[in-house]
Amino acid sequence: MAVQELSIQDPGARTAAVSPEELEDLQGEKMVVNMGPSHPATHGVLRLVIELDGETITRADPDIGYLHRGDEKIAEAMTWNQFIPYTDRLDYLAPLANNVAYALAVEKLMGIDGKLPPRCQYIRVICCELARISAHLLGIGAFAMDVGAMTVFLHTFTEREKIYNLAEALTGARFTTSYTRIGGVTRDTPPGWIASVREFCDGVSAQIDETEKLLTRNRVWVDRTQHVGVISKAQAIEFGLTGPNLRGSGCDYDVRKAHPYLCYGDLEFDIPIGSVGDCYDRYLVRMEEMRQSVRLLRQCLDRIPGGPDNASKEPVQVPDGKVSLPPKSAVLTKMEELIHQFMLVTEGPNAPAGEVYFGAENPKGELGFYIHSRGGGTPHRLKIRSPSFCNLSILPVLLPGCLMSDVVSILGSLDFVMGECDR
Amino acid sequence: MTVADPERIAEVCAAAKSTCGFDLLLDLSTVDNYGDDPRWTVVYELYSLSDSVHLRLKTHVSEERSELPSVSSVWRAADWHEREAYDMMGVRFRGHPDLRRILMWEGYPYFPLRKDFPLAGKPTDLPEVAFTRPAPLEGGPFVTAAGGRDSALREPRARTPET
Questions:
Q1: Which residues of B122-134 are buried (b: 16+ CB within 10 A; e: fewer)?
Q2: pTM value > 0.90
Q3: Which end of chain B is more exposed for a tag (fewer CB within 10 A), N or C?
């Protein structure tokens, strides 16, 4: 290496001559890079300690827990309904789906999951699928932005805004919805809401096609994602991956099909699976899942019992005073309802002693709740099986061998949320 | 299904995986049966993808032992689950390749999900991280008690088990 004589007079500004022996030493030296906890590609507060040999990763150690709030501990001091707002903050990109999953787990414990009114089931499915579209739109948008395709992010966020508007009209909150209650949902759909969801379905279908045009055959996108971060089917199962990450590796496990809950058994939809298990397949699976969600939404809107404006006054809560709150007018005029209301508010719905595990297919994967109850209004132990936690546990074996620049693609394609991972 | 001898849980899990096809470890949780013996219950939630069946395995571990064999050699997924169980409950898994804390920071002195750990937390050498002010709803969801001179005594912000 010849050292050029520079015309700068300051001797400190000159590059030092490096002897070939010194260079050899440098090549063997590994560098440890800290990525996160605050890095745009770590989507939250994931910290990765990465050991590099040149550009190649030799070791990766994810460090999680920066967003640990102790939700499981907090749950032990709360009645069943009081914990619902905390579920909003698990996967905060799909709060509606979390509300539904948690409510179903407690209902399974109480043995009322089969008694849910049909209209309530349809509303819940609409909520879940809207949440799935919203989460996947963000997942793909952020993924594309991380590898350099800014436009996609703007397109998908325009559609997400419409979902937030729908959530606001339905629940009163755009983000922290807390929409379900044990035994039902807080309120029926507002007038005209079903029609607006239908309108949204048409719009989002066009937008998904548009996104597909921007990405699927885009040279840069394909180069950055294809054959990057390949997870084999056996590996995905071994590490307990669920959701689009498992299906991207070619395993067709979907809780909605394997163990249909709510009215999923009556609805038609397909499960997309990948063939290679790389970042590109996980992207394709999410794109197709959004289309299937739209298909599910359309079926629900057509078939919802009571019709768009609930002309036949279908209930949206279990008609049991010991589970769901009576109407306010009845509380103020009738003895029985007053007692029920008082008991529900002060002690919470009474659950039997026992234990139950319920997993629901959430946008990120299987969100499970293991509830150990000793009876009464609070859980003795509530374990949250968060899909992001399991999906991230594969990083120490997935990252070594990849290039540093692939980390961004892999993290984007795994689509995790730290609020759920750390709980 | 309960496994009576916690020492054999790894064998049982390996058999469940190889002969019964429970290839997916969905969840691993621990329950603190505070005041009862044995104190810990370790719960394994298994799933068979080929047969679409769930299986729940449970085993009890006494407080004196607080240790059982790791199943991370059966499913790699158990690695992080066992680290979390150790971090939160203080149950150790023998044979785990890297049993460090996962959610709390390295060097944190307590196990927060134990029933004798107060909701408000305990002081540590990082007081700004783990505050020790009363936590809302401590002592149960409803802390109102009859009697007391004024409403502040009747309805405190929190009620610790000792007071």
A1: eebeeeeebeeeb
A2: no
A3: C
